[in-house]
Amino acid sequence: MKILNIRNSTGTVACALFESPKGFPHEFLKFATNIMIIKIRKDQARCDFEDIPPGKYAMAVVHDENMNGKLDSKWMGIPSEGYGFSNNAKALLGAPSFSAASFRYDGRSIDMTMRLNY
Q1: Residue 64, phi then psi, degrees to nearest 5
Q2: Confidence of residue 9 (pLDDT cuts 50, 70, 90)
Q3: How many Å apart are CA 90 and CA 107, to the nearest integer?
Q4: How far apart are CA 55 and CA 115, in angstroms?
Q5: How many domains does the structure of the chain reveal?
Q6: Sorted alphabetically, which InterPro entries does this protein's record hold (predicted)?
Q7: What is the mean pLDDT of the chain?
Q8: Cα–Cα–Cα angle for 80, 10, 30, nearest 5°?
Q9: DSSP state of 95
Q10: DSSP string spanning 25-74?
């Protein structure tokens, strides 16, 4: 997956793949099926997961600028770091549901692009 619209090269990008709603998307370090932490290169990053079995998944991506392992927020829970979800699921008054961000994976290569929101 290609991640675009990263506002700077500070910190890392965390790509978290979930196979169930449990912990989605806030507790990605604890509940995600697969996690990839990558460095940012020229306001872009790329996450490539391998050996994922077919199934239903949802992806959350966080620009962890201060590298504390979570999506930081400011007053009223509004994120202060970049974030994005598969299916371009929107965060309105909180994170989207697993079902809104979920997609079916049949075991073949998928080329996805996600733009982060700030």
Answers
A1: -85, 80
A2: very high
A3: 26
A4: 24
A5: 1
A6: DUF2141 (IPR018673)
A7: 91
A8: 65
A9: P
A10: TTTHHHH-SEEEEEE-BTTBEE----SPPSEEEEEEEEEETT-SSS--B-
What is the residue whose two structure tokens read 């790329």?
46
Beta bridge partners of 1: none
Predicted model pTM: 0.88
Pull the structure tokens for residue 80.
Answer: 């202060």
Top pLDDT among 68 and 91 is at: 68
Confidence grade of residue 60 (pLDDT, cut at 50, 70, 90)? very high
Residue tagged 């709603």 (tokens) = 21
* 16, 39 Cβ separation under 8 angstroms: no
Identify the domain containing residue 15 by its residue range: 2-115
**CA distance linking residue 95 with residue 111, whole number of Å:** 24
CA-CA distances (angstroms) from residue 102 to 5, 92, 96, 98? 22, 17, 10, 6
User: Which of 54-84 are b and which e, b meaning 16 or more Cβ less than 10 Å from the residue's Cβ?
Assistant: eeebbbbbbbbbeeeeebeeeeeeebebbbb
